[in-house]
Specification:
This protein has a domain at about 1-50. Helix content is about 40%, strand content about 0%. It has helices spanning about 1-20, 25-35, 40-50. The longest helix has 20 residues, at about 1-20. The N and C termini lie far apart (about 60 Å). It comes from Duganella zoogloeoides.
């Protein structure tokens, strides 16, 4: 009896660790949104699942609506270049 209970607690802890660390960000946001609808504090759940709060519930801080405070700088501002920043990943081919 006790062995089964201990194993169940260990499996639940492993599942919780997996869901907070290795699930895609979109899934974690949906979990936070689901928990927030059920009465869990959304800010604490978002911090626990390492995601941003308010995503999936409408226009919040996720940046999908364009009202995010951390928006990209306006064109023509200091340090602005006319061409987008290109990042190149160098590949080293071994033959």
């Amino acid at each position: 009896m006790w062995q089964n209970l201990i194993v169940a607690v260990i499996v639940a802890a492993a599942l919780l660790h997996f869901s907070t660390r290795y699930l895609p960000a979109a899934w974690r946001r949906q979990i936070v949104y689901f928990l927030a609808r059920r009465g869990v504090n959304q800010d604490q759940a978002a911090k626990f699942f390492k995601t941003t709060p308010d995503c999936g519930s409408g226009c919040g801080s996720c940046g999908s609506c364009g009202t995010d405070d951390k928006a990209a700088p306006v064109a023509g501002s200091a340090g602005d270049t006319s061409q987008p920043l290109k990042r190149v990943i160098p590949l080293h081919v071994q033959r």
